[in-house]
Specification:
Largest sheet: 7 strands, mixed
Number of strands: 7
Number of helices: 14
Strand order of the largest sheet: 3-2-4-1-5-6-7
Radius of gyration: 21 Å
Mean pLDDT: 89
Distance between the termini: 53 Å
Strand content: 5-15%
Low-confidence stretches: 334-343, 349-359
Length: 359
C-alpha cells in the first residue's frame, strides 16, 4: 500500500510458494502415512492460495485500487513453473482475486523446462552437481549432527528404527524432514512428535537450502538470472507508462523464495533466513511513485517489511543479482533432454539400507 498521501502504487510483484502439498515420496519409516499422489497440491493447499488471492483483492483491488474491480486483460502477468502444484496454486490465487474468472488456467504462463528461472534445480548440470556436493559435505553433516542434533535426536528417540546412519545417507534427512512437514500440514504428524519439532524441521530445511544456495558464488546468480531482470523490466514499464501490467504473480517453490531472500540478503545483510518459507509464503514487492517523480520499492515477506530502497538504487543492485557474466547455457552446460529427475530419488533403497554417506 502507498506509504504517504503523495505517493501512488504503480506495480506489485508477488512471488508465492505453492500451497500445502503431499510428500515427494512415501517414507519407509512411516508406511502408514500415504497420499494418493506425491508432490501434489492438497485441499489445504488449495484453500491457502484461494485465501491469499482474496487478501490480495482486498488490498489491491478494493483497497489501493491498483487493479480494476473486474478483470481486464493485460493488467496481470501470471507465471508458474510447469508443475501441477504451482499451476493449480496460481489458479486458486486468481480465483480469490477475481472470482468471476471462468478459466483462470488460461492466464497462467509457463516456459520450457530449460528456460525456467523460478526453479534453481532445472536443467543445469552446474547446479545439480553443487546440490550433490553439498549433500556430501561436512557443512551438511554438521547441520544434522550439531546445529540441529537436538531435533534429530528427539525424532530418533521417538522412532528407534531411524538411525544416524540412515540420516547421513545423502539427502535422506532432507527428504525425511520434508515428509514430516507435509504430514504435519495435513494434520498427520506422527505420534510422539510435536508442532515444535515441525518448526525445528523448517529451520533445518531452510538452513539446508540456504547452504546449497551459498555453496558457490554463482549459485544464487544462476537462480536470480532472468527473474531479477524480468522484475526490473516490469518496474521500468510501470514507471514509464509503457506497460499496462499492474500486478505480477510468480507461482514457485521454497527454493524460489530462498534464492530471492538470499539475493536480498546480499543487498541488505539485516535480512535473515530463519526457516524454509511456509506453504503459500509470499515475497511481495511494491513499487511506489511520488509526485516529485521519485520511486521507491518496498519488500514484504509474509506481511512484514524487510527492505525499502529508492528505485534508482534498487534496480541496479537487484538486476546485478542475476549477472553471471556469461550465458546460463554456458555456465550450466545444458543438455537437450537432460533428465530433470536425475539428481536424488527420496530414500533410494541402496542408500537407505546401507546408510552410506559420511564416515
Amino acid at each position: 500500500m502507498a506509504t504517504s498521501a503523495s505517493s501512488k502504487l504503480a506495480l506489485v510483484v508477488d512471488i508465492v510458494r505453492h500451497g500445502a502439498r503431499s510428500a515427494a515420496a512415501g517414507c519407509p519409516f512411516f508406511p502408514h502415512i500415504t497420499w494418493q499422489t506425491h508432490g501434489e497440491l492438497t485441499s489445504l493447499g488449495e484453500s491457502q492460495q484461494l485465501l491469499l488471492g482474496q487478501r490480495r483483492r482486498a488490498q489491491y483491488v478494493e483497497g489501493a485500487r491498483l487493479l480494476p474491480s473486474s478483470y481486464q486483460p493485460g493488467t496481470l502477468h501470471v507465471r508458474s513453473t510447469n508443475m501441477s502444484r504451482t499451476i493449480m496454486s496460481a489458479e486458486k490465487y486468481l480465483m480469490g482475486m477475481y472470482p468471476e474468472l471462468a478459466e483462470p488456467r488460461q492466464l497462467v504462463q509457463t516456459v520450457d523446462y530449460h528456460e525456467e528461472s523460478l526453479l534453481l534445480t532445472t536443467g543445469c548440470k552446474f547446479v545439480t552437481d553443487n546440490f550433490k556436493n553439498y549433500f556430501a559435505s561436512k557443512d551438511y553433516f554438521k547441520l544434522i549432527t550439531h546445529t540441529h542434533n537436538a531435533t534429530w535426536s528427539r525424532i530418533m528417540a521417538a522412532y528407534p528404527s531411524i538411525t544416524m546412519q540412515h540420516l547421513l545417507a545423502p539427502a535422506n534427512a532432507f527428504y525425511l524432514a520434508d515428509f514430516l512437514l507435509c504430514a504435519a500440514a495435513d494434520g498427520r504428524l506422527p505420534a510422539g512428535l510435536t508442532s515444535g519439532d515441525a518448526e525445528e524441521l523448517k529451520k533445518f530445511i531452510g538452513d539446508t537450502l540456504a547452504g546449497v544456495d551459498r555453496v558457490h558464488p554463482l549459485m544464487n546468480k544462476i537462480g536470480m538470472q532472468g527473474l531479477s531482470q524480468e522484475i526490473i523490466e516490469f518496474m521500468d514499464g510501470a514507471i514509464s507508462g509503457k506497460s499496462k501490467v499492474k500486478y505480477v504473480l510468480y507461482s514457485g517453490h521454497d527454493i524460489t523464495e530462498i534464492v530471492v531472500l538470499d539475493g536480498l540478503r546480499r543487498m541488505d545483510p539485516t535480512i535473515q533466513i530463519e526457516k524454509v518459507p511456509d506453504f503459500a509464503a509470499s515475497i511481495l514487492f511494491e513499487l511506489e511513485s511520488d509526485r516529485d517523480d521519485s520511486n521507491t520499492v518496498t519488500v514484504h515477506y509474509d506481511g512484514k517489511v524487510i527492505h525499502r530502497q529508492p528505485y534508482s538504487e534498487f534496480s541496479k543492485r537487484f538486476r546485478a543479482l542475476g549477472d553471471i557474466g556469461s550465458s546460463r547455457q554456458a555456465v550450466c552446460k545444458l543438455k537437450t533432454g537432460e533428465d530433470r529427475q536425475g539428481f536424488f530419488v527420496p530414500f533410494q533403497s541402496k542408500l537407505y539400507e546401507e546408510g552410506k554417506g559420511h564416515e
